[in-house]
Amino acid sequence: MSSTELIDLAANQSITITSPSYPGNYQNNLDIEWFIQTAEDFRILLSFHAFNTESGNDYLVVGNGRDSTDSSTWVILGSGSSLPPDTLSTGNAMWLRFTSDGVITKSGFSLSARSVESLGKSTLNEVKH
Ligand SMILES: [Ca+2]
Fold first, then answer.
1. Which one of 14, 26, 43, 86 is CB 3.0 to 4.6 Å from 19, fit for a cystine?
2. CATH assignment of 2-128?
3. Along the 129 residues of the chain, how does pLDDT read in single tens digits?
4. Could you tell me the distance, in angstroms and rounded to a whole number, from the CA of residue 32 to the centre of ligand 1?
5. Ligand 1: centre distance to CA 78 (Å)
């Protein structure tokens, strides 16, 4: 099963993203993409609450921007049971892609995506004051 979800995150809004059927096991043969964007001057902060995929075969990949085929944008390559670190986007867009192979499933993942004011901008404001 493959699907694409477009998420418009309002400034300061927070949402939860999970693998399908979480906290039950996800399905085999998934290819799911989420494209998140938020207001200009805001960034997206991902915080992981749970992570458990079949190590070496089922992956969550996260990257900056809007092009999930550009491997230079990758910031997280998650597989297995280690919780990925909190990750802040470099701009106002971020993508996630979850793929599973044909055998063995796990409980998957749960994370929150929050729109936060750009750190660069608040630093500038602090300097001005
Ligand atoms: Ca698998």
1. 26
2. 2.60.120.290
3. 899 999 999 999 999 999 999 999 999 999 999 999 999 999 999 999 999 999 999 999 999 999 999 999 999 999 999 999 999 999 999 999 999 999 999 999 999 999 999 865 544 444 444
4. 14
5. 13
Global pTM?
0.90
Distance 54 CA to ligand 1 centre (A): 5
Q: How far is the CA of 1 from the centre of ligand 1 (A)?
A: 14
CA–CA distance, 30 with 46 (Å, rounded to integer): 21
State the distance from the centre of ligand 1 to the C-alpha of 59, rounded, in angstroms.
9
Q: Could you tell me the residue ranges of all domains in the chain? A: 2-128
Q: How far apart are the first and last CA of the chain?
A: 52
